[in-house]
Design brief:
The protein contains two helices and no strands. By secondary structure, the protein is mainly alpha-helical.
């Protein structure tokens, strides 16, 4: 499988690549059976006051 990103000016490439890579990570997590809305160990790294 390949993820193709169209050619674009270099300074815009991180912005253009972010969405497809996030979607890829989302679909991989779903296939692995991970709960994407409640990641494990989140409370250890994030505190809300």
């Amino acid at each position: 499988h390949c993820l193709f990103i169209p050619p674009i000016r270099e300074e815009f490439s991180p912005i253009l690549a972010a969405l497809p890579l996030q979607l890829l990570a989302y679909h991989i997590a779903i296939k692995r059976g991970c709960h994407v809305d409640q990641p494990r160990n989140l409370a250890k790294s994030v505190t809300v006051e």
